[in-house]
Amino acid sequence: MSLKHEIYCKVYGKVQMVMFRDFIRRHARPLGLKGTVENLDDGSVEVIAQGTEEKLKTLIEKLHKGPFLARVIRVDVTWREPQEDFQGFTIVY
């Protein structure tokens, strides 16, 4: 039984141009999570993260909060089987 889980999230609200991606990366790395965070053309932020269920739930809490200047309206979270093998947690530019 694998302890590795994956979440696919879309975060909506004022989440671009407020250091949101950096905020998520700074919280994901100490948790030992792997994945990516990326701004999407529709103004949302996409997060793909892999790790233990407990640590992913901690990251989801951070997604709902965001950095000081962000205003998160909604976070859609999909739990799924890992799609690929990430080497670290990175910002996609």
Keywords:
Alpha-Beta Plaits, 5 strands, alpha+beta, 2 helices, single chain, globular, 93 residues, five-stranded mixed β-sheet
Description:
By secondary structure, the protein is α+β, with helices and mostly antiparallel strands. The protein has a single domain (5-82), classed as Alpha-Beta Plaits, CATH 3.30.70.100. Helices cover 24% and strands 40% of the residues. It is built from two helices and five strands. It has helices at residues 20-28, 53-65, and strands at residues 5-14, 34-39, 45-51, 71-80, 89-92. It has a five-stranded mixed beta sheet with strand order 4-1-3-2-5, with helices on one face. The chain is globular, with a radius of gyration of 12 Å. The relative contact order is 0.33. The mean pLDDT is 95.
